[in-house]
Design goal:
The chain is an all-alpha fold. It is 53% helix and 0% strand. It starts with 25 loop residues before the first helix and ends with a helix.
Amino acid sequence: MNTPLFQQVNTDTLVWKLEKNYSYSIRCSHVLCIEDIVDNDHLRKLGYWSGIWKLKVPLKVNNLVWRICRDWFPTRVKLNKRGINCLKECVTCNDPHEDIYHIFFHCGTAIDAWRTTNIWHEIEPLLHQFDNAPAFFFFNLLEQVSAAAQTKLITIILWST
């Protein structure tokens, strides 16, 4: 355009003021749209989300724990509520109510896996505290287990159950 604005300015440059380095980025525009323009407070859930992604396990395991905590895990009970006609019973033990807690903590197969790895003693007390909120249960479990190796083991067992 070559229209001088000030005598001191010789070159015209594009500047994106939302970044410290003044360069445009897709990430910054995404944050602007998601956090500043669109009201998404109803989607936010408090919790130890960074703990999920910091685990040094395969990404598919992190994703599984994230889906469980967001209550987006497709259990048979949930599928039936959404109009998908399938059996509600657990495939392993025929329990009539296959939800997240049953699959990972109440089914005999899951309990056997937890006992085999000597972690059941840390999980069982939390089950009585958080019986209907997967995110709170998992966040507390991830924060309270005694060692990082044990946390990895817990998430891997979740994946394998």
